[in-house]
Amino acid sequence: MSIPSRLNRALGLRLAIFVVIGNIIGSGVYKKAVPMAAELHSSGWVLICWVLGGIISLFGALSNAEIASMLADTGGEYTYYKKIYGRFFSYLYGWSNFTAIKTAAIAGIAYVFAQSLNSIVHLPAVFASWSDTSVFGIFYPFAAFQIKLTAILLILVLTWINTKGVKTGAGLSTGLMLLVLAGIALIVVFGLNSPQATLGAPFRLEVINAAPVTISAVFTAMLAAFWGYEGWNSVGFLGGEIKDPHRNVPLSITIGLLVVIAVYLLVNTTYLALLPLPQLVQMQASGNSIAAVEAVKVFWGHGGLIFISVLILITTLGCTHTTILSNSRTYYAMAREGVFFPKVTKLNSAQVPANALWYQGVWACMLVLSGTFDQLTDMLIFAAFIYYGATTFGVFILRKKMPDAPRPYKVWGYPIVPALFILFCLSLICNTIITRPREAVIGLVLIFLGIPFYWWFNKLSSNK
Question: Is 3 within a domain?
Fold first, then answer.
């Protein structure tokens, strides 16, 4: 059997939209209302921050969509950056995805899946006597090893499924996402119609501690929201496998993100209608930070715990799956350019970059073992917004460099919308350096480690 050399354009608009939604909806839809409430002490302001986070993400998505409509191809931003900034910057982006951004997202979401599974079936302890064993006194790979082992197995199984063909992978993503949306709809319908719901509570702007809501508090709460919206750009990585990509990539990004904003507003309104604000603040203080679990227990009792736990399992399973599906294509594009491991250029008989999937899966498993999930999450958002800002700035560059190039879609509100998004990205980056210097430094170190590898990959290519 001959091995194909080109990717198969098998995804239409519907599947592309579900890839976008599946990459976004993960743990944030269930967990982030609690830390946001604890930061703001106002139900109305929690909803405002969800809206603001969605609008800012949409500004970035609309800007991204203009470039995607011009340059749609496998690799997403990696491909775009070659046209905008040159080969080295595009490589550094792909390297950052591999070391710090997308593989960290896979590891973190898989870990949440394993935690949720453990809450239902109580996974037996594995290597418990080794839990205090450390590497350099920093990493504890055997701490809660039964959770980590489950997360690793999930990553490996989903990676294997994705090697069987992009349509198989995207079909699974669609099925899982339909189940998730149905489950969230049940929470909203039964929650808002239950006698325990106080329908006016979510829209009250007054604070419970009598202190005013500050700009700093709003900014911090929005950081929590951004984890909920992370992943909207991932469909661009599948540009070489999407039918009519110049139309369907930007359209799927915009439609998918608008759907997610609506879902987040509805479900968070439900949480805030069922759970008094002081209870949400206390949940954050006690470490019981899953708003969805407590909200469902209000109207379905303890039996609802099984329902919401299973729903979280399905959601994180779907999000892990779609993140694995889309992001491996960046490394395939890099390898074809000679700036990643050469074996990653090979496609299997299903026209899928299987080696890219396995390289990604192995590194994600290593991140699971590192155990530094909170650090990775902060680092992930920090690094991601460096590149989100760079992509949006590329709108201005390409308008000047390629003024006559066909643009099937032009960003709405140009130049104000992309300029506002760039200013926000700069503010987020500066704020993280000031308030989270450790995570910022770790992110920058992992990014700049790509420089010596760039030299090595180029040397390999020149010796061929």
Answer: no
